[in-house]
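Structural prep section.
Before we set up the soaks we want a predicted structure of the protein with zinc ion in place, mainly to decide which crystallisation condition to try first. Input record follows.
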Amino acid sequence: MDPSDVSTPMFDRIGGEIIEMATTLSDHEYHAARAGNLSVRISSDLVVCTRHRADKGKLTLNDLIICNLQGDGVAGGGKPSSEIGMHLACYRVRPDVSAVIHAHPPTATGFAAASTRLDQVTLPELVVWLGPIGFVPYATPGSSELADLVEQYIGSHDALLLENHGALTVGQDLRQAAERMDLVEHSARVTLVVRQLGKVFSLSPAESEELLEIRRRVDRAPPVFPLSSAGR
Ligand SMILES: [Zn+2]
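Run finished without errors. Recording the tokens verbatim:
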């Protein structure tokens, strides 16, 4: 699709959704100091993404850029986010995905900074609605190495913890990607409390597999790696 084919009403509608979601995520303190970025796929070869260093709490339509799948801005002012490579990797690997959010939710980012995985799920709802959170080894933010790593992991996960960095979620639309970001942060908070209480009560492999089967049915989720289990 030629960017000139993107009608003003369509751009305004999608832009409005991005602005509303970015404001909500900023209110949750997921986008401290202009960090993070959002994108929405609008055709087979174009996405709308946030501008590099845009303030996610005060976004306007001028902070949104239409870019192609090579990451080149084709309409709108300024440069796409430096982390657009991660977003494009998700769209390449997951035809079912139409929205990507990268953020730094405080508790989940604490786990990322401590190089501590969030794949030990103890709550059935998290397994069904989110699935295992992939753990992506550290690479420099904005680098092609990080985009390549995301490409490796996103085929089998809807949410990734990026070591020493933050989190990334995908969805059929922005709302689903945002709900998954909330679930990542919720998972981190619950895991932190569980560790403070000093006892990990993981689901057994059989219980986890039963929940993952529900997930495959209700959410048409991608194939997933087994959850880790610490035993009881
Ligand atoms: Zn980042």
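Observations: The first helix runs from residue 8 to 27.
Flagged for discussion at group meeting.
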